[in-house]
């Protein structure tokens, strides 16, 4: 019993910090989207069951028609909702990654002072570079024309 109370207290504290985060430093949408999908699954199933039962109460043929049509409607509707929710998840994950990249900018700004050091050492690195034995060709005029490697006809 105490473990359950501790778990509920931890969940309450977690939700309190997420829901009352006035700086919006944490995204709660990524955690709510699966719950929205579960709600869509349950409500779609309930709605289709209601239509099938109502159809059978009105007319048995109408109920049979709704019963045959409901799996197709269910699959199309759930697939469309799933695609939209996955798109939202991708957008939120991209946002999270962009936030991480913007936080990396601070460390890049700190390292930008190293450019003065590399400007001083660049002439020294040129001394230790190996030079090519042969000069590279600068124009296409020096290259021979392509040869035709076909066999002559017999």
UniProtKB/TrEMBL annotation:
KW Transmembrane helix (keyword) present: yes
Region (Disordered) location: 132-154
Residue ranges of the TM segments: 32-52, 64-85
Keywords for this protein: Membrane, Transmembrane, Transmembrane helix
InterPro entries attached to this UniProt entry: DUF4282
Protein's UniProt name: Uncharacterized protein DUF4282
Species, as recorded: Agitococcus lubricus
